[in-house]
Structures are given as structure tokens and as C-alpha cells.
Amino acid sequence: MKRAAEAAAQGDPDGQIALGRMYEQGDGFPQNFPEAIRWYMKAAAASPRAKHLVGLMYANGRGVSRDRDIALKWIAEAATGGCAEAQHMLGSMYARGKGVPRDMEKAAAWFRMAAENGDDGAQLIFGLMLRDGRGVPRDDIAAYVWISCAVASRPAGQKREIAIEALESVARRLDAERLREAQVRLLATGPAAGSPGPVAHAAIDRISGRPVHS
Asked: Following DSSP, what letter does each residue of 147-204 receive, concatenated?
């Protein structure tokens, strides 16, 4: 708490966000939404993530009057600035038609940006959109790549199992040659997009009955 307060007072955006979160959650201070958004606003000049948090405060009416238009403005600015959480949220909003007209192409574009920024949920969703041809042309190999990234990003547990099941559903569509092509493309994406790892390899081996990553 002391370190966050000192960093915030010196103008450090991460410290300001940390202090805002403590006020929002009542962690170390009594819960105080107006004080939380005050610190988020200070950080927003330099931090897309802080802009996203301001947008959430307006969306939920925390410390300010609830205003979805203002919330959307802040969230859109955060997404444009590179905040993966905001990009994921905009993708969801366009996919559902919540607060914006439903537009699957825009949804796919925002999910892709979030996926490229390492958001494992967006990696899975964008992969499924590629698998099903929703908002983007169907591409099973690209779907395999993105869903593999989601598998690699998730710790063991239910969320990883969901991604593995999605990966298996794509792998069933690919013959051995296309599976190898997908593996080559995945490895060529580099560390920013993740690596399939032994969990993903094992999932594909179960489907194909033969290793495809040698």
C-alpha cells in the first residue's frame, strides 16, 4: 500500500492504477469508488489499461453516474491504445450487439488484436471464429494455430480442457499433411503467439493416432 501510494504520488501510472484498484476493492483502504476513479483518471493520460478501468467504472456506475456512451468511449480508446482486455471486451460487444450494432467482422477484428496481445480467451474465441467462419473466412489451419496458443497460455484445469476440446475439434478436420502445415505455421509465429507444448501435441496425437510434430 505504501509503495503504491508513493509511486502514485510521483506520477507513475502503474502505481496510480494499483492505488485505484485498492480503493475500488477496499484493499488496504475503505472502499471508495470516487477515489478509485480519480486515480484511474490520473493514470489514463499514459496508460491504455487505466482508460479501460475508467470505462468499466462508467459502465458499472462506480464513483460516477452510469453512462454507457462514455464507457464505450473510454473502452474504445483503451482498445485502440493496445489494451488487450479492452480489445476483448469490444469484440464481445460487437459479437453480442451489446451497446453497439452487432457486427461479426468487427468482433473478429478486435478478438484478433486481443489474441495477438496474448489474451488467451481471445485466442480461443478467434480460433473458434476461424473454425466456424464467423466474421472471417473459414480457415482450419489458422484456427488450429490460435487455439493451440490458447492451450499453451492456460494453466492446467477446466479452462485448458475447454481449449483442448476445441483444438481436437479442429484437428479432426485436418489430414496428416495439413496438421504438419499447421504445426509449421504455429512454430513460425514465434514466442509472441505461444507454443503448442506437450499438452497440445498429446491432444493431437490422441485424435490422429499418430504423432504429427516430429
From this structure: HHHHHHHSPTTHHHHHHHHHHHHHHTT--HHHHHHHHHHHHHT-GGG---HHHHHHHH
7 in Cβ contact with 15 (< 8 Å): yes
Q: How many CB atoms lie within 10 A of CB 198?
A: 11
Q: What domains does the chain contain, in order, with CATH numbers?
A: 1-81 (1.25.40.10), 104-214 (no CATH)
The count of other CB atoms within 10 Å of the CB of residue 68 is 15
Say how far apart CA 26 and CA 159 lie, in whole Å: 29
pLDDT tens column, 95-152: 999 999 999 999 999 999 999 999 999 999 999 999 999 999 999 999 999 999 999 8
Which candidate, 124, 151, 144, places its Cα nearest to that of 186?
Answer: 144
| Cβ atoms of 169 and 131 closer than 8 Å | yes
Cut 0.90: pTM above it: no
DSSP string, 101-119: ---HHHHHHHHHHHHHTT-
Collapsing DSSP states into helix, strand and coil, what is residue 30? coil
DSSP state of 81: T
